[in-house]
Fold this protein.
Amino acid sequence: MIIDLKAELFRKQEEFKQQKLQSSSTSYVKSRPIEKKSTVWSKQNVGVLQRAQKDLESKAEDENEYEKSRFVYISNESFREKSKLYEQISKGGGIPEEDGSKVFLVDFQKKVIDNLLEERNKQREEEGHRLSKDEQICDAYIPVAKDEGEEWMDYTDSLGRSRRCMKKDLSMLKERDKDLQGKQDRIEDKEKDNVLPTLMSDDMRRELLRQKWEKEELEAMNGPIHYSNVRFDEKRSHGVGFFEFDRSEAGRQEQLDTLNQLRKQV
């Protein structure tokens, strides 16, 4: 009986120890969390990230605007240089040895020649339209001739233009046309003689031009001064009604007489 009681007591003690160990392992006292106080350095201003993002976007826009303005400035400077060089060549101020074709990727000499050809073709077209209108007017009304000499005749002049005149004036007009054609041929031959050879060095070309200008200067000093005597091969664009007189006094006077006769007939 005593042994049973001791065994029961020992069992109860063991159960109590086990319960005590379990309660001590599962139940513990939690420590109070320590609140960290925020300092001036750890605080962030409200919206600082948004402002930083806007600053980056604004900086990128400024860089783009700078690149655009720089490109526009370079383009404008290049355009001004092209315009200055093109104006110099088109006004006959001389074609420089380096005309900018490699720098600006523009053949200015060809551009000037193309413009001159285009202007000349335009003038020819306008002249053709004007002549066709005149011909239509002439064809619209042809008066009846009173005698054989007043009959209207069609002929082609030395320039290939269709003309109409009275039969009595036909021989005189053809003779005058031959004289004008002969003078034009002499002028063209003289211009061909004045053309400098292309296979020349720049020094030789300048020397020939200097000698030619000195000769023309002496001739201008010794004789009467006219516009054609003081041009010195200057390239200048004249109007449609411009007529270039011969440099010699005899040829000039002959041309003036012919023009005066034509003016009186008109």
The first strand starts at residue 152 and ends at 156.
